[in-house]
Structure formats: C-alpha cells, structure tokens
Amino acid sequence: MSQALDPGDLADIKEAFAKYAVLVFPGQHLTHDQHLAFAANFGSLETKLAVYSEGNRARTPAEIEYLSNLDLDEEIKQTENRIRLMRLANRLWHTDSTFKHVPAKISMLYGREIAPIGG
C-alpha cells in the first residue's frame, strides 16, 4: 500500500472488496500522502467537515479524519469536549456519508495506535 499498485494487484483488491466488503491489511506503515494515494485508487475523496470550521487546526490533510481521545495539545479530551461528545454519539449509530446525495463507496480506517483490549 505504500507503493503504487500495479493494475493486477489493484484489480485483485477491488475483487476481494466486492466479495468480502471488509479487507484488513496488517503491518502497514503509511504517510498521509501514501494513504491518500491508495484511497484515490477507488474514486474521488471526500473532504472532512472540520476543514470548514472557523479556527480549524488540523493534524491531517482535508481528506483524512483524525480520530483520537487526545486534543491538539496531546492532552486527553475533557468530558465536555464538543468533539468527544460528537464521537460518543456516533458510537450509537453511524454509517459514513449515507446522508449525501452520492454516498461514499468505501470507508478506510488506518490505525496507528490501537488499544490492545477492546480496540
């Protein structure tokens, strides 16, 4: 995934996705640019809503949503943190982009640090 895919490998991945719906690629170490390049193989990329927020300080490019329990100062988000509360609500029911006229075909999750239990 960190290198450009040859057409045969890309076709195999697309076929596997059509068959299984969920694919796991363990042991990947990607930069944001590599992640975006891989994702672009499957269509145009969405821009996260936070890009349009006033005073936005992003850790990631506009096409990558950053999910963490840490704030921008690397501190654990406080109980009343607006973003934390929104993420908690998303746990109850959430499907990416179903509200859009043309919903997303694929969502990709790239975990850098995952809890050993329950992650």
Describe this structure in words.
There is one protein chain. The protein has 119 residues and is mostly helical. It has one domain. Helix content is 29%, strand content 0%. It has 3 helices and no strands. The chain has helices at 7-20, 32-40, 82-92. The model has no long low-confidence stretch (mean pLDDT 81).
Largest sheet: none
Order of H and E elements: HHH
The gyration radius over C-alpha positions equals: 16 Å
The backbone outline, from C-alpha atoms, is: globular
Residue runs with pLDDT of under 50 for 5 or more positions: none
Strand residue content: under 5%
Helix content: 25-40%
**Euclidean distance between termini CA atoms:** 22 Å
User: What is the overall pLDDT average?
Assistant: 81
Count of discrete alpha- or pi-helical segments spanning 4 or more residues = 3
Provide the domain count.
1
Find the structural class using helix and strand composition.
mainly alpha
By DSSP, the count of extended strands is 0
